[in-house]
Amino acid sequence: MTLATGVSTIGDVKAFKPHLQSLSSYPYQAVEAPIKLDQNESPYDLPLEVKERAIERLQHLDWNRYPSLHADEVRTKLSQRLAWPQTGVVVSPGSNLLIQALVQAANRVVDTAPAFPHYAFSAKMSAVSYQAVALEADFSLPTEALLGAMEAGPALVFLPNPHAPTGQLFPQVEIHKLAHKALETGGLLVLDEAYHQFSSSDYTALARQNPHVALLRTFSKAWGLGGIRAGYLLASQEVCTVVQNFIPPFGLPAHTSAILLSVLETPEYTQRIVQTLLAEREQMYAALQEHPTWKVYPSHTNFFLIRTPDAAAAYAGLLEQGILVRRQDHYLGLEGCLRVSIGRPEENQRFLQAAFALSEVSHA
Ligand SMILES: *Cc1c(COP(=O)(O)O)cnc(C)c1O
To answer: What's the gap in Å between 218 CA and the centre of ligand 1?
Structure first.
C-alpha cells in the first residue's frame, strides 16, 4: 500500500524482504507548469522528418511478434557508430534500468554525495552494501577518499561525469586514478555519461583500454527522447553478459527499437540542438552572474545548479511565474540549491526575468 506521504508499507505481506518494510518512493513529484525546466529534458522534440520515419517503421512492424532477445539491430548500429564490439553493448528501456541491473549484480556500491539519486535508491532496494563519499565543499572530486573506499574491497563505483546534480566535469587525471584503482582492486568504475554531449567528454578510449571501466549513456537528454525510455551500457563482454542477465528477456520493446534505429540513421539533428543549448548556457551563465543574491555554478551539462538564500521561497516564486525547476536543497551540501534545465531561448528569458524580479521582491 502506498500512503499519501510516499512511504510504502508492505503491512502483513510476509513474502517480501524485510528491508522493504519502510522504503521511500523515488524522490520525484510531478507538477504542471507552462515552462518546464525540472527534468533536464531536451526542450526540442525530434525533427518532424525523423519522427515520420520512425512512425513509418512502426507501421511496418509485426506487432504480434516478440522483438529481438537483446535488441540486436540497435546494438549493431551502436557498435558501428562507436566502433565498439557488439558483445560489449547492453541496451535497455532507460539507463536507470541498467543502473538497477548493475547494482543487483554488485557486492558493494560506492558513489558520491550528492549524486544522481537512482544509484543510492537501487542499492537500498536491493539491500546491497552502499557507501557514499561526500564531494569536497567546492564540488571537486574527493579522490583520496574514493580511492580509500575502493581499497576496502572490490566495488562498483558510480560516477556521473559530467556530474549530476552539480554540473561539473572532473579532471581527466582524477578519472584515470579511479580507473586504475578499479583495475588494481578488481572493481568496476561506471562513468555515467548522461550529459557527455554537453561537455564533449567521452571516455570510450579509457574503457577500451581498461575493462574495469564501463560507460552509461542515455537517449533521454541530448537525443531528445526522454519519453521513449532508452539507454545503453558500454563495457567488456564479461560485464555485459552479467548485466544483460538482469534485464528481462526481450526487454527492449519493438517500438523503442524502431525509434532508436530511426534516430541513429540521422544523428546530426542532435548537434544542432546541443549547439543551441550551449549558446544559451553561455548567455544564461553570464546573466546569472549578475544576480544579487544567487550563486550560479559553472555547468558542463544542460542544466544549472544555483544556490539561493532560500530554495523553498525561490522555487515557489518561480512557480508562481509559471516556471517549474527542481529543488536540490535536500542533498548533502546543497543547502538553498535549485536545479534549472536549459530550455528554449524564450523560456530561458522568462526564467531570467522571473529570477531577477524575485530578488527585487525580497529586497523590497
Ligand atoms: C537523466 C540521467 C540519466 C538518464 O536515465 P534514463 O533512465 O536513461 O532516462 C542517467 N544518469 C544521470 C546522471 C542522469 O542525469
So the answer is: 6
pLDDT at residue 2, rounded to an integer:
46
Decide: 170 and 139 in contact? Cβ < 8 Å.
Answer: no
Pocket test for ligand 1, best of 92, 111, 116 (most atoms within 8 A of CB): 116
> Chain centroid to CA 349: how far?
25
Instruction: Looking at the CA of residue 98, tell me the nearest atom of ligand 1.
Output: 7
C-alpha 344 – ligand 1 centre gap (Å): 21
On the question of pLDDT at 5 being above 60, the answer is no
Give the three cell numbers for residue 350: 522568462
Residue 13 confidence (pLDDT): 82
Task: State mean pLDDT over 178-200.
Answer: 98
Burial 324-339 (b: 16+ CB within 10 A, else e): bbbbbbebeebebbbb
CA–centroid distance, 290 to ligand 1, in Å, is 31
Tens of pLDDT along 109-120?
A: 999 999 999 999
Arithmetic mean of pLDDT, 70-86:
98
Ligand 1 interacting residues, C-beta cut-off 6 A: 40, 94-96, 116, 160, 164, 192, 194, 218, 220-221, 231
With a cut of 50, say whether residue 1 has pLDDT above it: no
Return the percentage of the chain with pLDDT > 70, whole number.
Answer: 96
DSSP 147-210: HHHHHTS--EEEEESS-TTT-----HHHHHHHHHHHHHHT-EEEEE-TTGGGTT---HHHHHH-
pLDDT over 90 at 23, yes or no: no
Ligand 1 centroid–CA 237 distance in Å is: 23
HSE-CB at 179 with a 13 A cutoff on CA atoms is 19
| Average pLDDT for the chain | 95
Atom of ligand 1 nearest to the CA of 221: 1
Of all helices (H) and strands (E), which one includes residue 86? none
Q: Parallel, antiparallel, or unpaired for β 129-134 and 89-92?
A: unpaired
Give the three cell numbers for residue 193: 555519461
Query: 127 CB contacts (<8 Å, ≥6 apart)?
Result: 17, 19
Query: Of all protein residues, whose CA lies closest to atom 14 belonging to ligand 1?
Result: 194
